[in-house]
Design goal:
The protein is of the alpha+beta class. Helices cover about 65% and strands about 15% of the residues. The protein has a 5-stranded antiparallel β-sheet.
Length: about 170
C-alpha cells in the first residue's frame, strides 16, 4: 500500500511540474496560429486593394505564410515542453527535401500557375493555342489551365503553358 502511495505522489509531482510547461506551450502555439490568421487576412486585404485582379496570388501567399507560422509555432511549442527539437528540425529539412524531389512535377505546375496568375499572358475567355491544343480558356488554377476545345475539355498543366509558346488568337469578352 505504501508503494502505491509513493508512486501516486510521484505522478502528482510530475503532473504539477509538467502542467505549466504544457500551458505555456499551448499558449505559444495558439499565439503563432492567431498571428498566422491575422497576417493571412492582412495579405489578402492588401492584395484586394493593390491588385484586385491578382487576389488569388495574395490568398496563396497568405495561406503559405500562415502555414509556415503554424509549423514554426508547433516546433517552438515542442521546444517549450522540453522536447529536443534539433533532430526534429533536421528531420523536417530532410522530409521537405524528399517531398520536394518526389513532387517536383506538381510543384513546378503550382509555381507556373502562380506565375501565370501574376503575369496574366492570357485570361478567361481568351482563345489560345499551345502544343497542338486549341480552345477557349475557361479556368486557370494552380495546377491546370482548362480550355474548352471542340466538344472536349482539355486540362493543360501550367508548367507546359509556362515553358511553351502560347498563341492568343482572339479575345471574346
Amino acid at each position: 500500500m505504501e508503494g502505491i502511495l509513493k508512486e501516486l505522489q510521484k505522478l502528482t509531482e510530475q503532473v504539477v511540474n509538467f502542467t505549466p510547461r504544457a500551458v505555456v506551450s499551448l499558449l505559444v502555439f495558439l499565439a503563432f496560429w492567431f498571428i498566422g490568421i491575422i497576417i493571412k487576412k492582412i495579405i489578402g486585404r492588401i492584395g484586394g486593394v493593390l491588385a484586385p485582379g491578382k487576389k488569388e496570388v495574395f490568398n496563396l501567399m497568405g495561406q503559405s505564410v500562415k502555414g509556415i507560422l503554424v509549423v514554426w509555432g508547433a516546433v517552438m511549442a515542442l521546444s517549450k515542453m522540453g522536447v529536443n527539437i534539433t533532430a526534429l528540425v533536421a528531420g523536417l529539412g530532410l522530409t521537405g527535401f524528399a517531398l520536394g524531389f518526389a513532387l517536383r512535377d506538381v510543384l513546378s505546375n503550382v509555381l507556373a500557375g502562380v506565375l501565370i496568375m501574376i503575369y496574366r499572358p492570357f485570361e478567361r475567355n481568351d482563345r489560345i493555342i499551345v502544343t497542338n491544343f486549341e480552345g477557349l480558356v475557361t479556368d486557370v488554377d494552380l495546377r491546370y489551365t482548362t480550355i474548352q476545345g471542340e466538344n472536349k475539355k482539355i486540362l493543360i498543366p501550367n508548367s507546359t503553358l509556362f515553358t511553351n509558346a502560347i498563341s492568343v488568337l482572339k479575345t471574346e469578352r
